[in-house]
Amino acid sequence: MPSTVGRGPERRNTGLVVGGTSGVGRRSTQPTSAAAKVPRRSRRAHVARVFSAEGASASVTGLIVCAAVMAAAGEAGSFRDDLITVVVADLIYWVAAAYSSALGTQLIDRGRGWLTFGRELRAQWPMVEAAGVPVIAAIIAWLAGASDSVAITTGLSAATAMLFLLAWIAASGAGMRGLRRGVAAGSIAALGVSVIVLKTLLHSSGGH
Predict the structure, then answer these.
(1) How many domains does the chain divide into?
(2) Which long-range contacts link 97-106 to residues 24+ away (Cβ below 8 Å)?
(3) Which of 33, 25, 87, 67 is closest to 157 using CA atoms?
(4) Which residue has the higher pLDDT, 190 or 44?
(5) Reduced to 3 states, what is the DSSP secondary structure of residue 207?
(6) How many CB atoms lie within 10 A of CB 73?
(7) Which domain holds residue 33?
(8) Could you give the CA distance from residue 160 to residue 143 in angstroms, rounded to a whole number?
(9) Interatomic CA distance for residues 170 and 152, integer angstroms
(10) Would you tell me which of 24, 69, 115, 141 could form a disulfide with 146, CB atoms 3.0–4.6 Å apart?
(11) Is 114 found in the same domain as 11?
(12) In-domain check, residue 47
């Protein structure tokens, strides 16, 4: 009898200890794994939004605006002034695009159009993000010792590469393959090449 009574509580105590330990272990690891998954999901959702039809359209617009302003302003002032002009112009275009879309909604559905202004700002944000790529590329080239003109050309080249990449991904999503996909991507990248040619012509005329 003494041995039987002794084993009973011992088994109950062991069960409580083991169950409590494993339960605590599971509770401590679940939040950690969930917290690790949240940044991954947010990054994937962000990338999917950037390369969606609406996001890609905004990105292409931002790249073209950035390249055009960069090429035109690059021959008129210093490198720092050029970058400030590019950033301000792209931000203004971003707000203007969201405003015009919200205004169109307001004309169709009075009372609800302005409620979509914030959503349109978020939807058009890839325009600003895409424009940051050539700006950063130009800054890196300038910090590496390149002249103002070469740094601007580096930024324009980065914009052209981004235009090609966005068009390539969009064409792939539309089911295009082979030559059709290459032509679709090349036609958009030609806009960036034309801006580089424009910048070269402006530089040549300015030199004379």
Answers:
(1) 2
(2) 97/58, 97/61, 97/124, 97/127, 98/123, 98/124
(3) 67
(4) 190
(5) helix
(6) 18
(7) 1-42
(8) 21
(9) 27
(10) 141
(11) no
(12) no
Same domain assignment for residues 150 and 200: yes
Question: Where residue 113 falls among pLDDT bands split at 50, 70, 90?
Answer: low
User: Are 95 and 122 found together in one domain?
Assistant: yes
Residue 147 and residue 181 share a domain: yes
Is the pLDDT assigned to residue 36 strictly greater than 80?
no
- Give the integer Cα–Cα distance in Å for 143 and 147: 9
182 and 128 in one domain?
Answer: yes
Give me the mean pLDDT over the 111-121 stretch. 76
Q: Are residues 59 and 8 in the same domain?
A: no
Establish if 48 belongs to a structural domain: no
Least-confidence region, from 36-50, 51-65, 81-95, 131-145: 36-50
What DSSP designation does 110 have? T
Q: Could you tell me if 148 and 74 are in contact, meaning their C-beta atoms sit under 8 angstroms apart?
A: yes
Look over the chain and give the mean of its residue pLDDT values, rounded to a whole number. Answer: 76
Residue 96 lies in a domain: yes
Q: For residues 169 and 130, is the Cβ–Cβ distance under 8 A?
A: no
